[in-house]
Every structure is written in structure tokens, then in C-alpha cells.
Specification:
Elements (H helix, E strand, L loop, with lengths): L2 H25 L9 E10 L7 E11 L6 E3 L6 E4 L3 E5 L5 E4 L5 E2 L5 E2 L7 E2 L2 E2 L7 E4 L4 E5 L9 E5 L2 E2 L6 E3 L5 E3 L12 E4 L1 E3 L5 H38 L1
Helix pairs in contact: 1-2
Length: about 250
């Protein structure tokens, strides 16, 4: 098969991969605390017995945009947002520790404090359990206080503290489940310098306009590669006709 066809097929494939990443970002433009996936195209020469005569393209994921998203005031007592750098610690579905900026917290049916996605929020000694309470407050340091029901004169009780951390940005990577993790060997400890704002949520840091422009670019890229495949096929047919005349 003509080498031109192989190169065009490869270009079309990776244009679709880039479009998939971009579409995933765009679909999460309204997801609380979402961080944009970043990718780029690389040129990869094909080395043979003599010199590299062909160059293929490859779409590769290069990381995650960790910049903060816009802050949205909700006034809800269980909504929190990280002020500046830092992360909330949660328990992933596989039981491991992971990190998120999604502060849309809620209490599930068994009294566990979870994120909107259902991941238990970690405290000093594991997932945080909230007893029955007339009022719940989350302080800037992550401390959770409650007013016991039935006795308005009872002093607020500190029941636990959200585990707030701030690992080095270079040690962090997005997991398959959308949460952030750290590279093996990275020690993550609570950081007292991380603070929360109550009644506020951090939105997605996806730039919708940029994502729409990229969507058009990827579509045109795929169209160009498809035309090259058609041209390669046409060239092959013309060559066969010429050979049949000889």
C-alpha cells in the first residue's frame, strides 16, 4: 500500500484522538472543580535501514491544567472552595487516597460526608462521618462543627477536620477516574496553609471558546487527512492503469 495512505491514516486517527480529549474537556465545562486535560501533537520520524523518509504525527497527553476555575457564590453551608493552592483529600472507589477541588459536599444516606460525585471526604482518621445535627459549619481550616439537635444552648462541637493538602504540582497527575493522584514515592501531608471558603464553589477551568475553536481545527484536520487518503487511492488507480498499458 502507498506510504502516503499510511501517513494520512495515522493523521486521521490522531486527529480523532485529539478531538476526543477536546470533547471531554468541553463536556465538563460546567463540572465543579474540573481541570482541563492538555495534549499536543508530536512529529515522529520513521527510521529504516537508511534515512528517515517518512514522518508520522502522534497526539499525546502532556498533563493537566491545574489553574483555579472561577468562584461561584452559592450560600450553601456544605459548599466549599479552596482559596489559592491546595486540594481536598477524598477516598477513591478503589480505596486509595486521591485529591479534588470539587467542594460540592453532601451527606449520604449513612452519614458520610462525600463530594457530589460520591467520593468520601477524608478527615484526620479516615472518611468523615456526620452525626445528626441542627446546623453544620465548615471553617476556613477545614474544621467541621455541628450544633446538636434539640438544645440550642449547647456549644458547637468540633467533630473532625477535612484533610487539606498541597502536593507539588509536578508530582500530580490525573487518574482514570478523573481525580488527581500523586506519583509513587510522593509523601502527602496535611498543610495548614491551605484554607477554605464556605458557601462558594470553584467551577471548571475549561475555556469554552478555546475548546470550540479546537473542535473546528480538529474537524478540518480530519477532513484534510481523509482527502489525502482519497488522493492516495486515486494515485494507486492511475498507476495501475498506466501499468496495464505497458
Amino acid at each position: 500500500m502507498d506510504r502516503m495512505l499510511y501517513i494520512a491514516m495515522n493523521g486521521a486517527k490522531h486527529a480523532l484522538l485529539g478531538q476526543a480529549t477536546n470533547s471531554h474537556n468541553l463536556s465538563n465545562a460546567n463540572t465543579v472543580g474540573f481541570k482541563t486535560d492538555l495534549d499536543e501533537f508530536k512529529s515522529l520520524p520513521v527510521y529504516g535501514p537508511v534515512l528517515a523518509s517518512r514522518v508520522y504525527s502522534e497526539d499525546t497527553r502532556v498533563g493537566t491544567n491545574l489553574n483555579a476555575g472561577p468562584m461561584m457564590t452559592t450560600g450553601r453551608e456544605l459548599d466549599v472552595a479552596i482559596q489559592g493552592e491546595g486540594w481536598l483529600t477524598v477516598q477513591a472507589t478503589d480505596g486509595s487516597e486521591a485529591y479534588t477541588r470539587a467542594g460540592d459536599l453532601r451527606i449520604d444516606s449513612v452519614g458520610l460526608l462525600t463530594t457530589g460525585a460520591g467520593h468520601p471526604v477524608m478527615g484526620n482518621d479516615g472518611p468523615i462521618a456526620i452525626p445528626p445535627a441542627a446546623k453544620i459549619e465548615i471553617g476556613a481550616d477545614g474544621g467541621i462543627t455541628i450544633m446538636p439537635p434539640g438544645d440550642p444552648l449547647t456549644a458547637p462541637l468540633l467533630i473532625d477536620r477535612i484533610r487539606l493538602v498541597n502536593p507539588p504540582a509536578g508530582a500530580m497527575a490525573k487518574r482514570q477516574d478523573g481525580l488527581m493522584g500523586v506519583k509513587p514515592g510522593t509523601e502527602v501531608v496535611p498543610d495548614a496553609a491551605v484554607h477554605l471558603a464556605s458557601g462558594v464553589l470553584e467551577g471548571s477551568n475549561v475555556n469554552s471558546v478555546d475548546s470550540m475553536v479546537r473542535m473546528i481545527q480538529y474537524a478540518r484536520m480530519f477532513e484534510t487527512q481523509s482527502k489525502l487518503m482519497q488522493q492516495a487511492d486515486a494515485n494507486g488507480e492511475a498507476t495501475n492503469r498506466l501499468l496495464s498499458l505497458s
